[in-house]
Amino acid sequence: MSNRRNFLKKAGSTALFTSLGSSFFISCDNTEEIIDPDNNTVSENGFTLDGSTYTIELDHPNFSILKSSGGWYRFDEGGMLLVNVGQDIIRAFSNSCPHQGCRTSWKYSNENFTCTCHNAVFTNLGEKVSGPANSDMESYTVSRDENIITVST
Ligand code: FES
Questions:
Q1: What does the radius of gyration of the chain's CA atoms come to, in whole angstroms?
Q2: Exposure winner among 2, 62, 70, 93, fewest CB in 10 A?
Q3: Same-domain pairing of 42 and 26
Q4: Domain span at residue 13?
């Protein structure tokens, strides 16, 4: 079946689709899917939570940047920062800064995280480099199976 026919079949007669960059969002009655440019189907949000464990789909547009070395994502819904540190290794940290708990002022460059609330700097291992924090970042255990990662918080 051609990709176009497959797409239309999945979309159904009541589908609404909108271009989101290079991806498509599809709403079919009670189900929602996203089909990435490689035609892989992922869930609407790209993650699920079971207890304290997140399962994250790297094919989802929100998380696909994590497939690339140096790519990082502030995953607010999960309260964490995710980063690809190379060699297909992804690390996860609490997005609560060890200094005073800022969660949304993170930058990542030169393999370091910086919390711009008061300029605390940490390595991509979560170790304090400089600034006012008195401890390292809280890290989470990550396992990876191709383009699915699980993060235990
Ligand atoms: Fe992050 Fe102060 S809260 S540096």
A1: 18
A2: 2
A3: no
A4: 1-30
pTM: 0.76
Domain count for the chain, please give it.
2
Mark whether 39 and 103 lie in a shared domain. yes
Same domain, 77 and 59: yes
Percentage above 70 pLDDT, the chain: 74
Give the residue whose CA is nearest to atom 3 of ligand 1. Answer: 100
Atom of ligand 1 nearest to the CA of 118: 4
Verify that 41 and 105 share a domain, yes or no.
yes
The mean pLDDT of 5-18, rounded to a whole number, is 35
Ligand 1 center to 152 CA (angstroms): 24
Percentages of the chain per state (helix, strand, coil), in multiples of 5: 10, 45, 40
What residue owns the CA closest to ligand 1's atom 4?
Answer: 118
Same domain, 4 and 67: no
Secondary structure (DSSP) of 107-139: EEETTEEEETTTTEEEETT--EEESS-SSPPPE
